[in-house]
Structure formats: structure tokens, C-alpha cells
């Protein structure tokens, strides 16, 4: 006698179970009951349909009830909701949604694949119109109607999980102004905080107003719009709200039928996916599964596991004894330009289980290119790998990057599933040709680095926030000077790798040392030099200065765009359409390649010439502005074109209008290096005198000379501890300067000021004001500002910022150049 199988839920788990069962059991009677209007639709594609990336609605409907009936001989009944299960009678009670009429359906075997539903917490106003979840095709239709017909122009997305992120991106893509509110301090909970930081930066760069660490207190109608009141007291106003706060399993049917469910309402199943009633199977979001890594129980609502479980349940109904071995939670999400992926446990989860780094697990974080750096288009990705102290078990991995992230997370997930450890990662033989990978694939590299750490070749990879949290840490930056020009790691001693062996004496062997390079490779070489020279605790900074910039993007100077041309003087200029006389293609070059190439090419160019440089490395876009400022060149534009970043750079500063250019040099340049009152007075007296004779004068303030330009009052700016100390020790403003000799605890300085007054000699403040009125250019050296930890906001008005290039440019047009 043929058996009758009734399946509740007709999408991922239910539809795969039905189709597989038909292939195995031609004579089984299969009834598929689905309360919604569609079966087997691509709910994962819904956000992309809202953003019009998937244009055709019908593309989402993978299977129609008619085809299921015709091709698979399955009795598909959409708009039929199961109300209850009678396990004694082996029947389900069903309601026809359109008519409200109910009927009983008998089964021999029942499969529950009722999925999950979006959480709607009892927030005041949550039932107002235009507050939507995105879960079904009708939900997507409704959001699209709001956008296309009702012209909704703004949206607040609540929740920074993968659906929230996909919706934020797609609503932005559809042209809306978007805010994203997330209660935690990070988006994408499967990632550790530092791995989520690059996403935060990218989300903001793409114009989404990201509110972290804030939740919704209430929704209120505001005319046609909705006010979203946040717990912080702020209010956002939008035409549309998307709720993507999380999901809960649809386990009520099972619970009411007396099946065992867990505290969250998830159905408890055995390894064969049988519930506590052997005639009832359950699959998908609604069940509790084995955590593949730790072998305890968890809930992981993802499409891949649901589909596989549907297939396994069908196999078992057809007589097999196939076990579901657990879920790893392998997932991937696109967030604007970035892809984020993870598998297994993250570090937060390990710590929550009471595990301790260095005792129970180790971690490495590396940055590698998606394919060979010399082949165009390589993009960096950062991999974080968590593994046991013997290296035999992979606890989890996370990857954030632009390309090739999916294939690397899958490779690690496969290794993890097959019981491999870090040695296996390093041994994997993976397909390689330049457009696809490197001879040592990033996954191999993660394995190599993990083995090096476990092998004690150096102390390990530093925590990403070690420079912020650990005191008495020695930071060593082994990048080349040209790279440091583009980004300076705060408080780091800079010794290029090539000079390290000769300059070891500049470092303190007794201190814990964290080494930086651009991505970590040179830092590892430096670490080995240090270790072999008696340095005991040497760590490599994870992912290098690049990753430091990404994880500290909200604290350190970044320069990602140049809307208007920025001269080294800090001024902007309308330069019309500058024609590039030189084009260099750095696309595919690994950091620091592009900046080095720009530097080398610049040497061959004449002042005023323009270079167009394209690079695929996103870090280049960040670095080029700062590099130009510090080297006295001018960034004319810096924009994304397709996959590349294209910058126009003019050698030197902004050219002066022809009328201002002097035929014979008659300018005067004065470098004010000293912060001594008498020397500074002398420099201003000379400068004002020269200006009075009609000569163009530039005063370039560097190192201690910068103190002259400081505002007397305290200015609130973010500084590191060391910068604060430095700033605290430096005099604040002209009034605090002291004589170079006979200061006599300030008495000499006081007497000098009194005598100057008596003899009608201008005070330093008056001289500075006169200099400004006379058009004397007061330039603060940006490089020294960086070194001394002085911010532009701390300087008096009328001061320009400039690099060495700015000064040299003026010096070339001078016939007197003084160093005071
Ligand atoms: P579902 O596919 O949700 O199917 C359950 C069905 O049961 C529903 O159609 C429901 O109407 C029906 N049902 C419930 N109760 C009854 C009842 N009493 N009677 C009759 N029918 C009932 N996962 C990924 O892995 N990757 C992604 O990129 C991804 N993106 C997603 C994007 C969105 C917008 C959404 C909503 C989900 C996404 N998911 C993604 C999650 C994935 O879709 C789910 O994990 C998967 O669909 C779960 O399958 P399931 O069979 O358990 O439940």
C-alpha cells in the first residue's frame, strides 16, 4: 500500500522534501499545504527585487503549484493553512484561506517545514501603516508599490543583520535616503567587532546613515511620514520603515500537538530529523539543530541547511537512515562594495563559552589579495581564523573583502566539515592561475600563518585593539617612508624593514612590541629579525596598517574622496578640466605598490604636470589625499570608476594666476623651527620688513615653531594618550613663549616684554597680526603637526597647512631663505 505524506510549508525545506520524495517514491501520495499564495519562491532574492536588481518578479517564483502538480504529481494546495495536528488520529486540520472553510487531511507521515517569522516586538506604534517586514513575495510587492507608486523617498531600516543590510543597500539603490538603526555596536552578529568595522565604514561611505548602539523606542505618525523615536532621544523621519530585527520559529503547531520544543519554540528533532513523534519529521528554520563545531544544540535559520534537511527527511521517509550532522552557519552577504562571510563560531562565541585566547584557542588575521597582484583587478580581503591550540580543529572563520570571499569561506567551511585543521588549510592544493588566485591561495596563507604562530616563530598576532588598550607597548612600523607619508600609525616608531637590522638599538628589547607593515607580510619578516635578536614578545598587527585604518576608520584621519581639488596649502581651487600628461595603471598592484609607483613617477614629472593614476586597491583611494598633502602635491580628483579608483594628481601646489607669478625671484622664505620668544620675534620683524618692501614672504613653521601658531585656549580634539602628553608639554600660543637665554624662571621673559612695551616695539601678537594683514603666508608644516600631535583646529586663524613641497615651491621663487 502506498504511503501518504503531508508536508506543511511549501518553500525551502518543504518543497525540496516533496520533490526529492517523489523521485524516490513514485507511488507515494504527497500533499503540500502552504498558507501563502506561492510555493518554492526565492525569499533570499526579495531584497534584490525591491532594489530592482532582480527586475522580473516571476524570476523569484522558482516553481508554480501547476508545474509541481504536473511534473511531480504532487497535490499542491496554496492558501491552505494548517491549524492543528491530531497525532492520535494522524490528521491535520486545514483552513482554506480564501473561504475560511476547514477540512481534515489524514497522513501516514507528516513533515513540518513551517519556517520562521520576523519578530515584531511590542514597540508603541509598530502597527502603523508603512512599517513593513520583508519576508514574502507580497511583502516585497508592498514595499515596491510604496517606492514606485507612492514615491516613498526615505526609509529607516531597523536591524543590521543580513536582511537589514541587504534592504539598506537595495533601498539606497532604488534611490531612497536610508538610515539603518542597530541596537548592538556592530552590524552582522556572526562577525567579530573588528571584522564588522570595515562594513560600517563602507555603509557610511555609501551614504547610509548608520546608527549603531541605538534602538527604537516608539513609532509615531507624522502626516504621511513616520517618526522613528530612538532610545537615544533622537528622532528619524521616513516614509517607510523596514523591520529586520530577527526571526522566531513557527513552532506553535508542533507545540500545541505536544511535540517536544525548546525554550525558543524550536522543534526538537533527532539526527534523522524525526520529532518526538516518529511519524512526524521537521526541517528548516523551525527546528533545533546540532552545532557542528561544539556538538551541542542551536538554531540556525538559513536556506542551505533547510534545503538539505528537506532532502534528508525525504530520504529517511523513503527508508534510508541518513543523519543530519549539524549546521556550521556558513553564510555570506553583500554589503555595497564589500562581501562579508563567516562559518562556524566567532571569537565572541568562544569567549561566551568561557574559552580564553592562548589557552583554549588561537586566532590569526591576515590580509591577502583575491588573485595574483600582478594580474589586473586584485582586491584585498581580510581573513580571521579561529582554531584550537593544537591546530587540529577549526572553530570558525570570517572574511571581509571585495572579491573571492565566497570561495575562500567555502574552502574553509569544507575543511572544517571534513575535520581538517590549520595544517590541512596550508596543504590544500587549490586551483591557481593569475586571474583566479595566487600560487599560495589566501586560505593556504591563513594556514601558514596559523602554523607559524603555533610553532612559536613569534608571539602571535596582536589583538586588533592592542595599540588602544595596552600600555607600555612598543609600536614599530616597518613600511617605507613613502607609505608613512600616506598614513602614519599613531605613536609608532618608524624604521623601514631594510634598515631594521642596523637600527635595532633604537628599540627597547624589554617591551612588548607590535609590528606593522601594510598588510602583515613585511611585519612578519621584521618580527623574525626581532625575535632572533633577543626581543621576547613580538606580535604582528593583524592585517597591517590597512586593517588598522579600517578598524579605526572613525578615529584616524582618512581621505577617501576629493570632491574639490585640494592643494597642499589646504586651499581648494577651480582648475577647470586638467589634462593628464602622464597615466599610470596600478590596478592589481598590491599595497604599497600604487603609492610607490606614484612617488617614483612623480620624480620624473615637472611641477604643474598632472598624473592620472588608476588603482584597484581601495586603500589607495584612502591614502592618496593624505600623501598629496604631506608631499606638497595637489589632489585634483579622486573617484571610483567601475572597479577602479582613479585619481588626478598635479605635481606641486595649485598654480598661481599668471599675474601673481614674478619673473625674477624676489620672495623671502623663513623656516621658523624654534619656539623661543626672541628668535620668533626676530623672524616676524624680518618678515614684516620684507613685506613692507613689497616682497612676497612665506613663513614655514615646523617642529617647535608650530607653538607660535597655537591658539591660547584649549581646543577639544580627539588625541591619543601620547599626543595629549606632547600637546600638554608644548606651550600653547605666542603668549607662552620664553626667551632662549636669561629666561630666569620667566622673569627675563617678563622684563623683555616690559622693555619692548616701553620702547614701543610691537608685541609678538601685534607682529603676527601685522604679518597677516601684510599678506605674509603663514604655513604650518603638516608633517610636524602629525608628529607633534597638533590638529588644524588648534591653530590660530589665517594659517595655511602645507607640506615640504609647498615650502620648496615658494623657496624656489625666493632670493632669501632663512632658517630660524
Ligand atoms: P520557509 O522557506 O520560510 O517556508 C516556510 C513556509 O511555511 C512559508 O511559506 C509559510 O507560509 C509556510 N507555513 C507556515 N506555517 C504554515 C501553516 N500553519 N500552514 C501552512 N503553511 C505554513 N538564507 C540564506 O541562507 N541566504 C540568504 O541569502 C537568505 N536571504 C534571505 C532573505 C530574506 C528576505 C528572507 C526572508 C530569508 C532569507 N534567508 C536566507 C533565509 C531562508 O530563506 C530561510 O532560512 C529558509 O527559507 C527556511 O526554509 P524553511 O522551509 O524552514 O521555511
Structure in words:
It is a single chain. 29% of the residues lie in helices and 24% in strands. It is α/β, with parallel strands linked by helices and 820 residues long. A 5-stranded parallel beta sheet has the order 3-2-1-7-18. It has a 5-stranded parallel beta sheet with strand order 9-16-10-11-12, with helices on one face. The protein has a 5-stranded antiparallel beta sheet with strand order 21-22-25-24-23, with helices on both faces. Helix 19 (677-692) runs parallel beside helix 22 (764-773). The longest helix has 16 residues, at 677-692. The N and C termini lie far apart (104 Å). Bound molecules: flavin-adenine dinucleotide. Flavin-adenine dinucleotide is lined by residues 8-14, 33-36, 43-44, 46-47, 81-82, 113-115, 134-135, 163, 250, 253, 284-286, 301-304, 306.
Quaternary structure classification: single chain
Per DSSP E runs of 2 or more residues, the count of β-strands stands at: 39
- The stretches of 5 or more residues where confidence is low (pLDDT under 50) are 559-575, 658-662
Q: Which value, in Å, is the CA radius of gyration?
A: 33 Å
Overall 3D shape: elongated
Could you estimate the helical fraction of the residues in percent? Answer: 25-40%
Ligand list: flavin-adenine dinucleotide
Amino acid at each position: 500500500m502506498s504511503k501518504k505524506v503531508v508536508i506543511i510549508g511549501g518553500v525551502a525545506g518543504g518543497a525540496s522534501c516533496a520533490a526529492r520524495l517523489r523521485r524516490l517514491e513514485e507511488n507515494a501520495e504527497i500533499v503540500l499545504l502552504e498558507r501563502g499564495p506561492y510555493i518554492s519562491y526565492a525569499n533570499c532574492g526579495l531584497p534584490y527585487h525591491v532594489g530592482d536588481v532582480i527586475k522580473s518578479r516571476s524570476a523569484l517564483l522558482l516553481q508554480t503549484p501547476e508545474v509541481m502538480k504536473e511534473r511531480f504529481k504532487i497535490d499542491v494546495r496554496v492558501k491552505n493553512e494548517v491549524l492543528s495536528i491530531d497525532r492520535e488520529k494522524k490528521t491535520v486540520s486545514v483552513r482554506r484561506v480564501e473561504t475560511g472553510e476547514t477540512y481534515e487531511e489524514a497522513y501516514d507521515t507528516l513533515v513540518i517545514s513551517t519556517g520562521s517569522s520576523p519578530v515584531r516586538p511590542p514597540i508603541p506604534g509598530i502597527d502603523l501603516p508603512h512599517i513593513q517586514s520583508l519576508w514574502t513575495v507580497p511583502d516585497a510587492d508592498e514595499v515596491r508599490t510604496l517606492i514606485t507608486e507612492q514615491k516613498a523617498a526615505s526609509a529607516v531600516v531597523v536591524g543590521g543583520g543580513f536582511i537589514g543590510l541587504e534592504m539598506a543597500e537595495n533601498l539606497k539603490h532604488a534611490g531612497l535616503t536610508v538610515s539603518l538603526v542597530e541596537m548592538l555596536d556592530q552590524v552582522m552578529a556572526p562577525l567579530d567587532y573588528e571584522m564588522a568595522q570595515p562594513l560600517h565604514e563602507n555603509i557610511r561611505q555609501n551614504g547610509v546613515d548608520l546608527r549603531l548602539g541605538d534602538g527604537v523606542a516608539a513609532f509615531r505618525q507624522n502626516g504621511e511620514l513616520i517618526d522613528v523615536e530612538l532610545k537615544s532621544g533622537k528622532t528619524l523621519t521616513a516614509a517607510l520603515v523596514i523591520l529586520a530585527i530577527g526571526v522566531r520559529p513557527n513552532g506553535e503547531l508542533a507545540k500545541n500537538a505536544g511535540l517536544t520544543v525548546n525554550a525558543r519554540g524550536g522543534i526538537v528533532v533527532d539526527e534523522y530529523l524525526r520529532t518526538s513523534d516518529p511519524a512526524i519529521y521537521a526541517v528548516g528554520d523551525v527546528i533545533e539543530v546540532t552545532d557542528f563545531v561544539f556538538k551541542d544544540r542551536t538554531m540556525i535559520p538559513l536556506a542551505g541547511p533547510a534545503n538539505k534537511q528537506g532532502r534528508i527527511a525525504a530520504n529517511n521517509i523513503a527508508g534510508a537512515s541518513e543523519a543530519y550532522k549539524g549546521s556550521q552557519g556558513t553564510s555570506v552577504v553583500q554589503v555595497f562594495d564589500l562581501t562579508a562571510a563567516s562559518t562556524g563560531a566567532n571569537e565572541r562565541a568562544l569567549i561566551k563559552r568561557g574559552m580564553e585566547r592562548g589557552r583554549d584557542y588561537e586566532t590569526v588575521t591576515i590580509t591577502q589579495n583575491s588573485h595574483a597582484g600582478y594580474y589586473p583587478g586584485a582586491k584585498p580581503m581580510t581573513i580571521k581564523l579561529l582554531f584550537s591550540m593544537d591546530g587540529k580543529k577549526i572553530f570558525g572563520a570570517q572574511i571581509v573583502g571585495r572579491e573571492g570571499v565566497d570561495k575562500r569561506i567555502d574552502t574553509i567551511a569544507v575543511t572544517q566539515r571534513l575535520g581538517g585543521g590549520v595544517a590541512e588549510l596550508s596543504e590544500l592544493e587549490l586551483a591557481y592561475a593569475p586571474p583566479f588566485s595566487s600560487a599560495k591561495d589566501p586560505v593556504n596563507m591563513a594556514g601558514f600563518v596559523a602554523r607559524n604562530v603555533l610553532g612559536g616563530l613569534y608571539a602571535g598576532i596582536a589583538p586588533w585593539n592592542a595599540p588602544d588598550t595596552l600600555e607600555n607597548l612598543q609600536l614599530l612600523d616597518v613600511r617605507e617612508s613613502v607609505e608613512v607619508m600616506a598614513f602614519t600609525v599613531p605613536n609608532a616608531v618608524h624604521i623601514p624593514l631594510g634598515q631594521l637590522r642596523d637600527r635595532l638599538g633604537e628599540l627597547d628589547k624589554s617591551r612588548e612590541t607590535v609590528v606593522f607593515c601594510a598588510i602583515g607580510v613585511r611585519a612578519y619578516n621584521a618580527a623574525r629579525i626581532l625575535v632572533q635578536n633577543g626581543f621576547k614578545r613580538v606580535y604582528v598587527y593583524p592585517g597591517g596598517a590597512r586593517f588598522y585604518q579600517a578598524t579605526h576608520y572613525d578615529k584616524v584621519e582618512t581621505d577617501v574622496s576629493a570632491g574639490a581639488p585640494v592643494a597642499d596649502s589646504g586651499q581648494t581651487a577651480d582648475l577647470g578640466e586638467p589634462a593628464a600628461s602622464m597615466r599610470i595603471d596600478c590596478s592589481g598592484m598590491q599595497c604599497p605598490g600604487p603609492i610607490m609607483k606614484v612617488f617614483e613617477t612623480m620624480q620624473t614629472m615637472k611641477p604643474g604636470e598632472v598624473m592620472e593614476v588608476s588603482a584597484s586597491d581601495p586603500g589607495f583611494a584612502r591614502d592618496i589625499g593624505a600623501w598629496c598633502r604631506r608631499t606638497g602635491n595637489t589632489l585634483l580628483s579622486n573617484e571610483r570608476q567601475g572597479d577602479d579608483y582613479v585619481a588626478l594628481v598635479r605635481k606641486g601646489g595649485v598654480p598661481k594666476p599668471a599675474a601673481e607669478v614674478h619673473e625674477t625671484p624676489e620672495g623671502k622664505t623663513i623656516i621658523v623651527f624654534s619656539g623661543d620668544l626672541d628668535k620668533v620675534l626676530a623672524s616676524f620683524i624680518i618678515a614684516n620688513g620684507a613685506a613692507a618692501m613689497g616682497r612676497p614672504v612665506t613663513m614655514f613653521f615646523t617642529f617647535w615653531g608650530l607653538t607660535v601658531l597655537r591658539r591660547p585656549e584649549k581646543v577639544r580634539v580627539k588625541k591619543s594618550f601620547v599626543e595629549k602628553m606632547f600637546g600638554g608639554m608644548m606651550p600653547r600660543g605666542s603668549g607662552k613663549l620664553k626667551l632662549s637665554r636669561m629666561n630666569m624662571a620667566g622673569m627675563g621673559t617678563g622684563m623683555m616684554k616690559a622693555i619692548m612695551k616701553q620702547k614701543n616695539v610691537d608685541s609678538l601678537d601685534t607682529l603676527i597680526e601685522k604679518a597677516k594683514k601684510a599678506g605674509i603666508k603663514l604655513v604650518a608644516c603638516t608633517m610636524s603637526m602629525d608628529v607633534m600631535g597638533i590638529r588644524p583646529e588648534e591653530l590660530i586663524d589665517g594659517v595655511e597647512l602645507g607640506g615640504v613641497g609647498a615650502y620648496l615651491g615658494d623657496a624656489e621663487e625666493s632670493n632669501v631663505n632663512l632658517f630660524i
